[in-house]
Amino acid sequence: MALSKKRRQHWIAANQQEYSQNYSSLHFLSADEYAQAHQSRQNILDSLASDVATGCCETKLDMNNLSPGCRICADGDWSCLFINGRCNCDCFYCPTSQQEIGQPTTNSIEFRHAEDYVLYLQRFGFRGASFSGGEPLLTFDRTLHFLKTIKAHMPSDFHTWLYTNGSLLTDQMVDQLAAAGLDEIRFDIGATSYQLTALKRVGNAIPVVTVEIPAVPEETERLKELLPQLVDSGVRHLNLHQLRLTPYNYPRLIQHDYRYLHGERVTVLDSELAALELLEFVHRNDIGLPINYCSFVYKHRFQAQAARLRNGHFMAKSYECLTENGYIRTLILAGEVSRLQQLCRRFSENNCDPTSWSLVESRGRLHVHPCLWPLVELDGVEVIVDYAFARQLPQMTYRNPFTRIELSSRQEFVIERSRAGREIVFTAEQAEFFVRNVLLANRAQKDLGDDASTVDEFWEDVLAYETIPHGLQEYY
Questions:
Q1: Of the four, 194, 335, 426, 447, which is 20 to 30 A from 462 by CA?
Q2: pTM for the full model?
Q3: How far is CA 110 from CA 102, 156, 161, 199, 257, in A?
Q4: How many Cβ atoms are within 10 Å of 427's Cβ, its own excluded?
Q5: Count of other CB atoms within 10 angstroms of residue 365
C-alpha cells in the first residue's frame, strides 16, 4: 500500500527539521523525476525477476546464497556487539563519529565481561553474533577474548563474524582469529581505496570471507572491474548497503552530486540504483559472486522489528499479542461494567483460559485475547486497540513499566515498556473489518492494500503497528 499524502508530508517535515538550514542544499527531485527514477529501478527489477529471489517483504535481494551471518540477521537472531567505538579510517560516508574506545556495547547495554555477554546471548536465544565498531582490530586482545569466550560456551553451530577495514590485519591476527573459531570476516574495502591486500591475507584460514561496503555511485565501474578479482581472492559474498545521510556525514556527502530520498531517514537514491545495477551486472555476465543488496528499509524495518519482538515477549501480558511488526497489541472492550461482566461469564462458561482476559471495573474496560473473539458480541461495547513497544535500557527510567533482567551478580539491565501512540478507537464497521482482516485472517499488508477501503490514513496508522511494509523504499 502506497504511503498517503499525510504520511509523506510527515516524513518530509521530519527531514526538514533534522537538517534545518542545511535542508535547502539537499538535492531532492520533482514528482516526475522521481517517477522516472522509479521506472529505472523497476526496469532492473523486472530484468532480474527470473534470476534473483526477494525476501523480507521484498526489501532484500538477492536472497539466494546469503552469507550465514546475513541469513541469521534475516531471521532476527543476530546480536551485534560494538566491541569499541573508535575507527582508524575516515570514510566520507560513515554515519557517526567514532572517536572513543569505550566499552563493548549492544542495545545501549555495556558488557565489561565477556562471560556476561555470553549469558545475554543465551538468555535471548541468539544464533549468531558479530563484532563491529569502530574498528575491532584496534582492541584486538579484547575482541579475541570475547570471541574465545563465546565459542567456549555457545553451541558449535553458533555463527560469529567480524567487521573490519583490514588496514591493521596481520598474518598473526588471522591465525589467532582462525584458531579461536571465527566463522566469517567482512571487509569494508571502501575504507582502504578498494585495496584487496588484507582480504587476500586471509586465504582459507577463515571459512567465509565477505566484502561489505556501501554502494557508492561513483565507484560502480571500478567495482565492476574488481568483481572477478574478488572471486579470485576467495570472497564468497558481496554485501552492498544504501548510503544514508546523517547530520554527522552531511558536510562530506553534500560534496557529492547525490540525489536524495525522503523517508524515516534521508537516503541516497543513486546508491540504491548503483547497487541494483551491480546486481544486474553480476547476473548478466555470469560472475560467480552472490550479491546481497541490504537496503535501508530492510535494516530499518526488520532489525527494529526483531528487537521489538525479542523484548516484547518479556513485557506482553497473557491477554496481549505481539504483532508481525513486533508491537504489543492490547485489545480492549469498553462499556458498562455489567455488560463486560456478562462477557466474562460467557468466557468462563466456555472453559476459556482465565488468563486470556482481564476486567478493569474501575475504568469499564475488558482486555481480551483475540482467541476469545468468536465469543464476543459488540452490542453495547466499544472496541479500542492500544499499541506499545519494549526496549532494553541500562537502567529504569521510572516513567514506564519495566522488568529487570539479571544476567549475573555484576550485570543486569531492564526491559521497559512504552506506549507507541494514542489509543485507536474503532467504529462498529472499522472493528468488523479489523477483526476479519487482521485478528482472524492475519492477512499481510500487501493483501490489505488491495481492498480500496483500507487505503486511507486511518488504516495506514493501524497497519504501521501491525505489519511490515512490502517493497523497497518509495521515491518521493
A1: 335
A2: 0.94
A3: 9, 25, 20, 30, 39
A4: 11
A5: 19
Per-residue b/e over 214-237, b at no fewer than 16 CB within 10 Å? bbbbebbeebeebbeebeebbbbb
325-334 pLDDT, tens digit per residue, is 999 999 999 9
Encode burial over 400-410: b for 16+ CB neighbours within 10 A, e otherwise.
Answer: bebeebebeee
The residue written with cell numbers 587476500 in the block is: 200
Average pLDDT over residues 245-250: 98
Residue that is written with C-alpha cell 555477554 in the block? 117
Cα–Cα distance measured from residue 40 to residue 315, given in angstroms and rounded to the nearest whole number: 45
d(Cα 247, Cα 245) in Å, to the nearest integer?
Answer: 7
What pLDDT sits at residue 435? Answer: 87
**C-beta separation of 394 from 109 below 8 A:** yes
The β-bridge relationship of strands 237-241 and 291-294 is parallel
What pLDDT score was predicted for residue 449?
47
Q: Determine the residue type at 417.
A: R
Question: Residue 217 corresponds to which amino acid?
Answer: P
CA atoms in the 13 A half-sphere facing the CB of 189: 24
CB 134 within 8 A of CB 94: no
pLDDT confidence of residue 1: 67
| Cα(108)–Cα(178) distance, integer angstroms | 29
Express each pLDDT in 23-56 by its tens digit. Answer: 999 999 999 999 999 999 999 999 999 999 999 9
Residue for grid cell 567482512: 186
Q: Are 299 and 245 in contact (CB under 8 A)?
A: no
Q: Return d(Cα 230, Cα 239) in angstroms, integer.
A: 12
Q: At what angle do helices 114-124 and 140-153 cross, to 10 degrees?
A: 50
388-414 confidence digits (pLDDT tens): 999 999 999 999 999 999 999 999 999
d(CA 426, CA 333): 11
Q: Count of residues for the chain?
A: 476
Please tell me the predicted confidence (pLDDT) of residue 358.
98
Instruction: Please check the confidence at residue 444 and state whether its pLDDT lies above 70.
Output: no
CA distance 166 to 135: 9
Angle at 225 between CA 65 and CA 131, to 5 degrees: 50
In degrees, rounded to 5, the angle at the alpha carbon of residue 411 between the alpha carbons of residues 410 and 417 is: 145
